[in-house]
Each structure stands twice: as C-alpha cells, then as structure tokens.
Amino acid sequence: MAAKKNPLSFEEALSRLDEIVRHLEKGDLPLGESLALYEEGTALIASCSKMLDEAEQKVVKLKKGPDRSPVELDFEGEN
Amino acid sequence: MDQALSVTELNSIVRNLLEGEPMLSNVCVRGELSNYKIYPSGHHYFTLKDSESSLRCVMFKSSALKLRFRPESGMGVTAWGRVAVFLRDGAYQLYCTQLMPEGTGDLQVAFEQLKARLEEEGLFDDAHKKPLPTIPGRIAIITSSAGAAVHDMIRILGRRWPMAKLLVMPVRVQGAEAPPEIAGAIRYANEFDVADLIITGRGGGSIEDLWAFNDERVARAIYASRIPVISAVGHEPDVTISDYVADRRASTPSNAAEIAVPDCREVAELLHAYEIRGSQAMRKKLAFLGERLENLKNKRVLSEPTAQIDLRRMELDHMRKLLAAAEDRELASCRERFVRLTAALDAMSPLRVLTRGYAIAADGEGRCVRSVEAIRPGDRLRLTLADGRADCLVENTQRSNINGSEKESAEL
Fold it and tell me: What is this structure's pTM?
C-alpha cells in the first residue's frame, strides 16, 4: 500500500474507493491483488465513516492580520 | 449596370451592412408602443413610434416570458435589443430582448445596461464557469456577519457536511462601501487561497438593498476568481448581475448551502454501497476461484495419480503379448522350414545311396576317388559301405570305354 504520509482527502478517498470497487468488479486481478485492494477499500471506508461520525463543524471568522495575511478568530455571530 | 442583383442579393448586402455595425448590435431605444400583438407562437410583435417615425419590433417568446409587466399599445417604454434585417420582407426591425415601461427607476435601467454590456463582453459565458468542488474542505462565506443569512448557511452546511471548515469573511452588503468590500474579500480569498469554494450573497431586500450585487466591481471580482463562486442573493425571483457572473446561482443563501456540500447521510449511503459492491465482487471472485479449484480437483490426474501409469502399463502388456505371438509365429515357420530342409537334405544324403548297395572309395588321404586314373595297383583304398568300411588293396585297374567296355587295363 502507499505510504500514508499524506492522508487522502475525503474526496480523494471517495474516488479511490470508486476505483477500487470498479477494479474488484472487473474481477480480472490475481487473488493476491484483489485481496490487497479489498483490504485497502475496507480501510478507506472505515476511515471515511469515522470522519463522518466524528466530524464537528468548525466555523471561524477570517480577518486580515497586521501583515495582511489571514488571521482566524472565533466566530460567534453578531446579531 | 452590367449585371443586375437579385433581390435576395441586395437584401443580403443591406443585412450584412446593418448587422456589421456594432452600435446596432446592442441598442436602447425609447418610444411609444403601438399595434402590440401576441401571436399563438408566444412571440410578441409591435411597433415603436414617436411623433415622426416608427420602428418594427419583435420580441421572441423566451424574452417575452421574462417581462414583469403587461405591455399595451399607447404605453411609453424603453426597449433593448439588436437591429437586424428580416430577409424575406427586406425590412429591418428591432429584435427586442428587454422592455421596460417608462418611469422605471434609474437603477433598473442601469441594471439592464450593465447586464447587456457585461454579457456582450462574455462575463456570463458558460465556457468560463468553473465546476464546483464535489466536497469542498474549506468554504469562504463572504457576507454580513449580522443577519439571518450567515446563520442559515452555517446551520445548513453543518447539518449536511460538518467536515467542511467555514471561514466567514464579514463584509457590508449594502451601502456605498459594500461593493468594494465584497470585491476586495473575493480577491483576498484568492490571493491567500483560503478556501476551495466561495459563497457570497445576502438575504432578501429591496432592489436598492441588493444593489451591491449589481455592481460592476463585484461582477469583475467574481469573474476573476480562481476559486469557484456561488452567488446567493435575496429570494428566488431576485436576479442580480452577480448571479449571472457566478459559477453557480443559488436562489437563496440556504439554497447555496445545499448546493455547496453533499449531504453526509447520502455519502454514508454511498460508502455503504461501496462496501457492499466490494464484498460482492470479492465473494464472486472467491466463488469463481473455488469453482476452478473444484474442477481441477476432479481431474483424474489429480484424483487418481496412478491412472496414467496403469494405463501405460496395460498398453505395455498388450504390446508384449503381440510381440510374443509374433515370436511364436516366426519360430513355427522356422521350424517348419527346418523340417522341410532336413527332409530334402536327407533325400540327398549319400548314406541313403549306400543302403542301395553302393560304396564310396577314398584314397589313403581320405579323398573321394572318382576315377581309375587316380589310382594304381597297390594303392590302398578305403570303401565306405552302408554299415561300415573296408580297407582294400588295388590289384589292377581297368578303364571302361564310353559304352562301358574295357579299353585298357593295368596290372599289379
């Protein structure tokens, strides 16, 4: 499997999953490779599901800092 | 004139002249409606006139459907469109795209003019519109931090896709400062690449309230944005210049939040579907391989490994039998030949002759004596008879003539 230095984004994980499932459905891979792909897919599904389950919305207020670069502040909403 | 033009040719020349004139491709003209007719096709036909002149006009169904008032003959109006020649009649007319009753506010007129200009310039072209990211990780919300719109968006985005990080970039959304603030925030978001998607807009209000989103500076900032932009201004019927330029128009801020992100429940279903498809594919693969294995197991070479050897052994035995039979046959024929030859030999044997009373004479050296010439009286001869032999002394020899009479003789 690929080194997990850069974890896939959710979108990348989904498209990788799509790829994996298509490969598996074609059914022309040797058993060893199929099993490896299946394992990779299962791990991706697990990590995506975990992300979905544990996601907590993050809202910040973006302001221009003194050096013009963006600064994130708490957003409480002003009414 | 050497050669007369056909009517079609002449009208085509006039048409090309008129339609090549940029000023006529996007004109705004004021006049009074007369002879206003709506055809069953949905196209509107009318004449615009003033005290001295008149102009034939047509408004096609697609444009006529957008009219917000009911045009009637006698009404003072402003019309937008292009001038072109209707070849069949050799008449030029105004192909009207927008009609507004006289007394319409300056804002509306300005709107129509800006819209026509930016459209002409290609700012609304579909080809320029960028696809929205399927799952934006960071969403910049450029709107007022006060008001319901921002909270609606945060709530809906959080419910649908809590994984997206929301960056609220507070700006004023009405008043003279609003357009430069909105445009500035869009440019800033691009400059520092703060988000994968921008939503800009505001809640509903009067045409004056929404005016910042009809500002050319905002339109150009949206057009220049590398980050895809969703425009979400006011309520469903409000359409602003921003809506035309943006990569996607949302009817309301809430609608923008729905467009921006997928619903996590749908994505969970998608994941589940992948899971099922993957497992099914795997099961199918294993079943296929299992079946192949089973087929191989049932092959005789595997189920009875000695079968081949036994078969060969049987063949060998058979060959051996054939060979033995061949040998027997050969032997019998040899034996038969032997018997035959022996009989022949036997028939020719001198011993057989001897039994009939003949004798064989041999000299002292055992050589067979065939002629009296070979012996002299006094020689010793050995006679072989059928049942034994006798040693003899030659007393005399006598040569017989051809007919058997004695010719000469020698005596001891």
Answer: 0.59
